[in-house]
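REQUEST ID: PR-0412
SUBMITTED BY: lab tech R.K.
PRIORITY: routine
TASK: structure prediction, single protein chain
INPUT:
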Amino acid sequence: QFPWSPASVYGESNFYTPAAFEFNPDYLRIRASAESSAPLPYSSGVITSKSRHAQRFGYFEIRARFPVGTGFWS
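STATUS: complete
OUTPUT:
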């Protein structure tokens, strides 16, 4: 969730919620889903390193599966 707003800041049909995260010792899962009772039609989570980490060199590597469908933005 963005610390400054749980709502979409980029004009998506998506809102950010802490409930989208599942933590496990082996992985972090962020679920995107359709929400019929929410303020926007979809929900998901977002991770930011703003004010916490800056990296000048190197790279990050992830293994990810992204949802298919209208309204989801990887």
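NOTES: Residues 3 and 24 are 23 Å apart (CA to CA).
REVIEWED BY: pending
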